Amino acid sequence: MAVAGKLSFVAIAVLIAAISIPISADPDMLQDVCVADLNNAVKMNGFACLPSFTASDFFFGGLAKPGLTNNSLGSAVTPANVMQIPGLNTLGVSMARIDFAPGGLNPPHTHPRASEILFLLSGQLDVGFITTANVLVTMTIYEGQIFTFPKGLVHFQQNNGNVPAVAISGLNSQNPGVQVIAKSLFAATPPVSDNVLAVAFQIDTQEVDEIKSKLAA
Ligand SMILES: *[C@@H]1O[C@H](CO)[C@@H](O)[C@H](O)[C@H]1NC(C)=O
What are the CA-CA distances from residue 86 to residues 19, 171, 192 (Å)? Predict the structure, then answer.
């Protein structure tokens, strides 16, 4: 009886693992197209489908121009996901363009719903991701090269060159989501308490407030 119980527990565990593999990415399509009705009040996992569509629902010209990098980070991400391209609804893919000034940083962040494959169009970048065992996996990449960031892991890119750099990323979600670590902890609304951050980072609350005021600016 005990053995049978253990076996059925194992069987259930295997079944759960098998089921959770296909649903760990965006769900698969049940129809040719489902152009997002972005304004529909009905919210679901993805968007409701518009009754009709045109070619322009599958088009976006916004990656042709560089993003403005004259900001405190020296970088700009221009997304091309379901919010810009309603035709991406249910397709499970999206892109982004990332521009970097010399020294510019796309700061540590995660995409909760997507892995990322980055193609460096020009310049050079120091890239890295950090595993859940806190191992930093990092290297420098050059024009024409690719680096990959696994789903959900903290990662970053920095332009270590003295000319601008431009990268194009592909992501396996129509809506990868982005959580920028510094901003989510130090610029949340309402704010995460000073004490939580002071203990977490082993610093005093004055230092917490200093970081908060810089990131709010
Ligand atoms: C960045 O540059 C653009 C275009 O040159 C300009 O319109 C904008 O005001 C600048 N922004 C900052 C924060 O300097």
Answer: 28, 16, 34
pTM comes to 0.86
Q: Where are the domains of the chain?
A: 55-177, 187-215
List pLDDT tens digits, range 139-154: 999 999 999 999 999 9
Domain at 55-177, CATH class: mainly beta
Whether 163 lines ligand 1, by a CB cut-off of 6 Å, is: no
Measured CA to CA, the distance from residue 46 to residue 23 in angstroms comes to 14
Q: Which residues pair with 119 in a beta bridge?
A: 146, 168
User: Going by CA atoms, what residue is nearest to atom 7 of ligand 1?
Assistant: 68
Peptide bond into 79 cis (omega under 30): no
Terminal C-alpha separation, the chain: 64
